[in-house]
Each structure stands twice: as structure tokens, then as C-alpha cells.
Amino acid sequence: MHMNQSSLDIAIKNGDFFNLSTGDCLQLLKQEYAVELDWLKTAYSVPGPTSERFNTLSPSLHLYDTEFDEVNRTLVSVLSLRWIYNKDYDTFVSHQVPHIKLTRESFNWISTFFHNRIDDSSSDDIYSLITSIIINDLGKSESLITEFQRVTNINISKLNHDMILYQVVNKYPHLVPSISKLPPPRKADLILGIQLGAEFNFEPVFQAFKNVYDVSIGIIEGRLGVREAYDLNLTKRVELLINVGWEKGREFDISEPVYRAVMRLLCTTNSSDIDGADLIYDTFFEVLGEDSRRFLVQGLNSDGSLERPAAQATYIPAALAAVFRYLARTLHVDVEQVQKKLPPGVTVIERDIRRTIMDIVHSDGFPGNPDILDNVDLPNDEVANMAVGYEWIIV
What's the domain of life for this entry (predicted)? Predict the structure, then answer.
């Protein structure tokens, strides 16, 4: 336990944390993680549903009288932890879309998994888990990046947000004070988890809780390589679609690059029903031009190497052919240009489409003229991974 016990420490140790009212829990988190939540206020985000849609007060409105998207997402994640602990399935799924709502069976698996691995007699486990949730998206904070550069004279703005967080906690953890409150073994585990997240970007491909666990353990234990892990999840996605009646999925072969590319798109767009899967399939095979389709197949099957880095597109929305044409351009890597703009050793480039097309896609004019994306510049290149032996920091 920590040298100076905080109110959160005491609440966890006494067994009160999971029984507090939502309001009291949020106030406790604000007190404990004041610095981290302030960083999150400046984190970039794609705007989510508003409080009005759910007819309830969001966490950030409750605490700060202002909407901060990443503060909301982070604090709701901690509240979700309480729902899992208390086996409150109804609250957990209350705002999920019916056709992709988590089943009670899957929720029970998560709850049982949590209870079997958390030591209720040691508040360190729970405190460490809450801390990992709170700091997970700090790499998106513009003010944290600026402060890191001010105190270290190192510019990490060209890294993706997972790598930014790893650099901060690894080289200047004082900027994230909750890290220093952890016992050394828990701190080491948390930093290793952050490093795994930086190396292996879960969210665009892994849209199911148990899949993330199975694949993560497989990688940690050395039973799965990254490519095998991705392929396992791609296969599970198609199996899910076949189970809801998508017969086209039966022809898919993970060893065929063209089918693997479509499987990646199905995962990236979180396709979970026949209509959604058909939109991806038909757009890919019937609407896209041959050149765009060829670039997509190449880009979506590239793992990245020192000689030819791969690109991963983040925040890509689903659907229209114009979006896929833009995605095809985003995934195409000009090796000569990369070598001129980025340091030696880069194997994977991240291109964040949030800054280039999100406003356009959500504009009133986009549905009537989606081809406008053909004239939009590509996102800036950011380092997502480097070869072994090369330094991650960009000075």
C-alpha cells in the first residue's frame, strides 16, 4: 500500500469503492487524479453522444460544468468497472445498440474473470487497475505533449498517442503523478502494459472483450505472433457474421490477401450484421476501381518492415467508396518520401484521418458530394513503431 493513504485508497481498502453513489465516486476520482483529468481536458477526440441523448448528466458536466469528451470516456470506463464488479448487466448495456449489445453470457465471463483475478484483500490491485484506466488516453493531450517538450526539450508530437504515453511514463513519469503512487511491481506491470499497447494497436481490429484477452495472453506467452493474433481475430469476425446469416463470409480464406483485406475492413468498421457486411463487400468488389482496390489489398496486408514501413489509418469511418478511395491513398506508402520525412528505423507509420476528413464526413454537404474526399490531402505521418535497436524518441 502507498505510504500516504488517500481517500481513494481508504475507500478501496474498506470495500466501499464499489458501493459508493456515482456522484461520490466521481468526486473521489477527481480528488485522486486531478492532474491526470486536467491533462485529459485538452485531449483530442472525435465527439461522442451528448448528455442530452442519454437524458443524464455526463461525468465532466458533473465535475467541471463543461463537456470534455475524453474525461467522459475515461470516467465512464471506471464506472463500468464498478458495474462489472457488482454484476450490474442492465446498467452496463443500457445504452448499447440492440444488434451489437454485449450478451449476458459475455458479461458474466468478464465479471467472473475480474473477480477471479482481483485480490479483494489487496487494494493495490484495484488501485492499479483504476490508474491504468485513468491514464490510458493521456497521450492524446496536447498540453501534456507541450509540457513534456518544455521539461525535456524532446518533441514527441510526431508519435502516435500510445507511444506518447509510453515515452512520458518511461522518461518523465512525474508528469503523471499517479504512476509514482503505485508499488514498484505494479508500476512495472503497468508500464509494460502501456508498451504492449504502443506496439500492438488493439482498438481498430479488436472489438470484443474476450478476443483482446485471448490474443494478448497468446502474445505475452509467445504462442502468437502479431500477424497470427490479427488473423485469429479477423477469422472470429467473419465467423460472427456467418452466424447471423452472412453467407458471403463462407467463401473467405484468410490466406488470400484480397479476402484478408476485406476481413480487416469488416473489423475496422465493426460490421456486425448482414447489411453492414454487404456494404463493405459490395463497395470493395463492385464500386472501387482496380487501382484503389489493389492499394487497399497491399496496404491492409502489410505488416511493416525497415525496408518498407506499413501505414495504419486511425479513426476511419465506415462505408462509402469515396472513403475507401481515401483509405487506399492513406495506406499507400511512398518509401522515398518516408525516408526523407521520418527518422531511420520506422516500420509502421500512423496517419490520423481525424484532422483531415472527420469534419468533411460529418458535414451536411458530404452525403451529396462524397467525391470531395478525392481532393483532401493525406494525414501527416506519425511514427507508430520502429525496428528493434532504433530509438523511439524523435528530437
Answer: Eukaryota
User: How long is the chain?
Assistant: 395
Q: Any idea which of 142-146, 250-254, 262-266, 287-291 has the lowest mean pLDDT?
A: 287-291
Q: What is the DSSP string of 22-62?
A: HHHHHHHHHHHTHHHHHHHHTB-------HHHHTS--HHHH
Name beta bridge partners: 382: 350
Neighbours of 322 (CB within 10 A): 21
Kindly report, residue by residue over 154-188, the tens digit of the pLDDT: 999 888 888 999 999 988 999 999 998 999 999 99
| Number of helical H runs and strand E runs in the chain | 21, 3
Per residue in 222-231, pLDDT (tens digit) is 888 878 888 8
Which residues are paired to 311 by β-bridges?
349
Whether residue 326 contacts residue 296, with contact meaning beta carbons closer than 8 Å, is answered with no
Please give the grid coordinates belonging to residue 44.
483530442
Which residue reads 468488389 in cell numbers? 285
